[in-house]
Task: inverse folding
């Protein structure tokens, strides 16, 4: 990690509790000779004087060397997608203002020691696999996203059970009749995947999880496949069918699928670089957030 001279600051929309902390962190950074780069809405939240330069969320990854995200996991996931889209390796420091926070696990007590470690170049950084998803329609890519947690193909609320054909590296491996299918990274294993009965995977595992949602067949079970796999998911739709099938990306955006659409998923070229608290292991976070492994 090179020398850090610019630290981006971004908070969850309308997170008034973060206002004082943002101003304090900006002052601390500038006392260290480091420029605080505010995202535009976050600058208003922090009470930054008018006229000071700010940057948009989309532009922030290219405007700084590290980003401090204040909020919950949703705020961090949104910024992770922007970093991936920008094609940069900017690490994220996720500060927890949410209720759960698997990713934004750094507390306010941890924040300044971790920022010191970041500036000194010896922070603990995890690399988290991301996925690239493309929707291909009649040979053309009509949508493309980079996700940290999951790609989910699911039925609409009033639709019947849907049928999905799943191929891995060109070989059909599953015919899923269910409410949908979750394709998750190890990071996403504790998100929707866990709620749907999928396994927890340690973030360092180089694997991709395929978890049917409320499957109709008892033989449809979660599957873990190598991280190098290329996955094709094709919904079985008829021209006259009123059933609707959607693909969603990290629970933050999505679109309906049409007849003969194929969702192609593979490991993204770059991982997300996530700054971790040095005093807690992944299993400590599981125990704290989920009461995992306790009697």
Result:
């Amino acid at each position: 990690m090179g020398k850090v001279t610019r630290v981006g600051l971004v908070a969850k929309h309308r997170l008034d509790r973060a206002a004082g902390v943002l101003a304090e962190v900006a002052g601390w950074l500038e006392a260290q000779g480091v420029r605080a780069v505010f995202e535009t809405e976050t600058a208003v939240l922090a009470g930054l004087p008018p006229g000071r330069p700010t940057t948009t969320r989309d532009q922030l990854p290219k405007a700084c060397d590290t980003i401090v995200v204040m909020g919950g996991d949703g705020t961090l996931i949104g910024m992770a997608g922007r970093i991936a889209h920008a094609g940069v390796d900017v690490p994220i420091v996720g500060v927890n203002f949410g209720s759960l926070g698997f990713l934004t696990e750094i507390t306010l007590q941890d924040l300044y020691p971790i920022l010191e470690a970041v500036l000194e170049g010896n922070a603990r950084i995890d690399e988290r696999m991301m996925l690239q998803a493309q929707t291909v329609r009649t040979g053309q890519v009509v949508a493309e996203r980079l996700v940290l947690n999951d790609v989910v193909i699911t039925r609409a609320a009033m639709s019947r059970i849907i049928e999905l054909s799943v191929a891995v590296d060109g070989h059909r491996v599953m015919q899923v009749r269910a409410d949908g299918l979750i394709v998750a990274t190890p990071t996403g294993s504790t998100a929707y995947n866990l709620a749907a009965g999928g396994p927890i995977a340690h973030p360092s595992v180089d694997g991709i999880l395929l978890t049917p949602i409320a499957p109709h067949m008892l033989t449809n079970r979660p599957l873990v496949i190598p991280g190098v796999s290329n996955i094709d998911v094709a919904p079985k739709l008829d021209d006259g069918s009123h059933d609707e099938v959607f693909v969603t990306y990290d629970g933050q955006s999505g679109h309906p699928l049409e007849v003969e659409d194929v969702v192609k998923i593979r490991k993204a070229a770059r991982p997300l670089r996530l700054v971790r608290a040095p005093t807690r292991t992944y299993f400590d976070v599981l125990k704290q957030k989920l009461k995992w492994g306790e009697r």
The longest strand covers residues 140-147. The mean pLDDT is 92. Residues 85 and 118 are 23 Å apart (CA to CA). The first helix runs from residue 19 to 31.
